[in-house]
Amino acid sequence: MTLPPPLPFGPGHPWLAPLAGFSDLAFRLLCREHGAACACTEMVSAKGLVYGSPGTEPLLATTPDDSPLVVQLFGSETSFLEEAMRMLLDRGFTWFDLNAGCPVKKVVKTGSGAALLLAPDTLVRLAEAMARLAGEGRGGGKTRLSWHAGPATVLDLAPRLESAGVGWLTLHPRTAAQGFSGRADRSGLARLKAATRLPVLASGDLFTAEDAAACLAETGVDGVMFARGALTDPSAFGRLADLVAGRPPRPRPDLAGLVRRHAALAREHLPGREALLKMRTIVPRYVKGHPGARTLRKELASCMTWEHLERLVNEHLSPAAQPDGD
Ligand SMILES: Cc1cc2nc3c(=O)[nH]c(=O)nc-3n(C[C@H](O)[C@H](O)[C@H](O)COP(=O)(O)O)c2cc1C
């Protein structure tokens, strides 16, 4: 068996984070065009995959250009994780990630996601199973500091996950109870980095290339993942690579071009209506803060055809469009 090339870790090799509802094939390809060195799928339920639930299969759509790709799994039962891993390995997927940080109710009520921080032995067993099936170092763990405020569970867990064969750790340094409130605690990243020999990736409040560069300098982590930052500006990946290399950051792409390119990728990789609905959720994120954003958001809600979307792009986003002042 030929081994896949190693994953890119390093300050100038930013990853696209797993983003349920967003990090689909089209968006991953777009982010790669803008410099993402690696990308994660949306979280995939191990049980859903094993039971063939209809929502699961589209999450695994990929193409040869979509590489390296990390499939993120969530679950709390070793048997389902193992079966899901066998299925994915049979299909040629090579890199995996275990979700131990999602605080969303429908995930934690099954004992998965951030609930694993309350069940460290289960988390370690799942990580061991992932490494046993995929091979040591082929699976990462993405987590938060702890469930509640207090001592950071992740610091005690890190050496255990390392022994379990985990290949890297991604930390969003908030507690699960915090959700997205407050601020990401960068000191937690530095502490995790000191507590493990594994590569550590930072996630959390990295909205721009400059945020990521500051986080890297402050914490000493090995690399970053862009999440919400990529949803507003996919060029953050390339801009960070420029900053790290000491080059002036490349200019942001023009919004009309960005929306058209995303639409073309969505049309290529999603069924027509779904692609259009996806654009209706993504465009408002791209135009945040843009002079015509409010009007455009309102009009997008009733956008039912690609011609209509193109008209909106022309009217509101082309360089000649008149700002409407909101
Ligand atoms: C819409 C959305 C979907 C997300 N989906 C996932 C997911 O599927 N798996 C996961 O581990 N984290 C998920 N996250 C968390 C992000 O990967 C990231 O860790 C978090 O947003 C913090 O980074 P940011 O503040 O730079 O956005 C999601 C976040 C958002 C906003």
Describe the structure.
It is built from 14 helices and nine strands. It is of the alpha/beta class and 326 residues long. The protein folds into two domains: 230 residues, Alpha-Beta Barrel (TIM Barrel); 62 residues. An eight-stranded parallel β-barrel has the order 1-2-4-5-6-7-8-9, surrounded by five helices. Strand 6, helix 6 and strand 7 form a beta-alpha-beta unit. Helix 3 packs parallel to helix 5. The C terminus is likely disordered. The site of flavin mononucleotide has 21 residues, from helix 9.
Write the layout of secondary structure elements.
Layout: E1 15-16, H1 25-33, E2 38-40, E3 44-45, H2 46-50, E4 69-74, H3 78-90, E5 95-100, H4 105-108, H5 120-134, E6 139-144, H6 153-163, E7 168-172, H7 186-195, E8 200-202, H8 209-219, E9 223-226, H9 228-232, H10 236-244, H11 255-269, H12 272-286, H13 293-300, H14 306-316
Parallel strand pairs: 1-2, 1-9, 2-4, 3-4, 4-5, 5-6, 6-7, 7-8, 8-9
Helix pairs in contact: 1-11, 3-5, 8-10, 11-12
Bound molecules: flavin mononucleotide (FMN).
